[in-house]
Amino acid sequence: MKKRIFTIGAAILVTASTATVIWGHSARQARESVVQKNTADWIVAGAGRVEPESEDIKLGAELSGKLKSVYVEEGDRVKQGQLLAELENADYHAQVASAQAEVHETEAQLRKVVNGARREERREALSTVEQARAVMNNSESEMLRRQKLYEAGVISREEAEQYAKEYDVAKAKFQEVSEHHKLVDETAREEDRDIATANLLAARARLEQAQAMLAKTFVRSPIEGTVLRKHHRLGESVSNGSTVPDPIVTIGATERLRVRVDVDEADVSKLTVGQKAYVTADAYGDKRFRGHIVRIGQELGRKNVRTDEPTERVDMKILETMIELDGGDELPIGLRVNTFIVPKS
């Protein structure tokens, strides 16, 4: 009886040991399977932020001044070259009008130099010469006649000298109008044309400068995209400073979205352009937005995206990596996401 009980107990013990070994082996296999599955799903993880394909483009005025109008609102679609905002520019319009008038004046002066005097002016100058010649000839005849009368003792010496003076005056007048006629009738000198041409070029340069200054009062879109943020409104003053940017609007090309990811320096060797990835966001639960790496940074730097976790390290070195999403149009610009880069295989 005791032998039978011992035999049954030993059998039970062997059975329990076998079951324990089998269960332990199965549990270990299950855990390893879960680990392998999780590690095979992604190899690099990091925090990221959603951006437009063009990145954020902050547009401001090239001049400081007061806004005359802002023509767009947040969410508006804009075309390349579309007018977004305008500064008060009445004084710049006046400068352009003044420069245009100066160009017209110098153009007329150049034409006058090149073409010379008109036919009417030449005929008038020639008529003046003929008239002066007639007066001179008449004065000469009177002078000669008075000299003969003086020699005959008919008139006094003073009277003869008076007619001689009148002849000298008439002769000088004739020479003066003759020189004027030559000046009017001759073609322009080369140096006169060069001076007139230089004056015209300078006037045109001043016009281009005035037009360039006027153009700086208009803010236009460099791309086709969407207005993401409107920073200023009608009547507000804006400044043009290189140290303190003062954008009027922020736009971006949102047809395709990208995610800028901070990858830890220890994982940079695992990255290649074209590698698959996906992102998740707390607001969208377990939904995955898939994409691929389109750009890998060339220089390590500090973290750009903060997760607000108390244990987060902010002094770590990261490499900026850009992932282009295949979809995810509903993701808002600036949303913080969790990014996972899958193995190359």
Automatic annotation (TrEMBL):
Keywords noted in UniProt: Coiled coil, Signal
The residues forming a coiled coil are 89-142
Could you say which residues form the signal peptide? Answer: 1-19
Chief localization: other
The domain of life for this entry's organism is Bacteria
> What InterPro entries does this protein map onto?
HH_YbhG-like, UPF0194_transport
Q: Where in the cell is it found?
A: Cell envelope
Q: Which residues form the YbhG-like alpha-helical hairpin domain?
A: 87-216
Q: Pfam families, alphabetically?
A: HH_YBHG
Assigned GO CC terms = cell envelope
PANTHER family xref list = EFFLUX SYSTEM COMPONENT YKNX-RELATED
| UniProt protein name | Secretion protein HlyD
The scientific name of the source species is Koribacter versatilis (strain Ellin345)
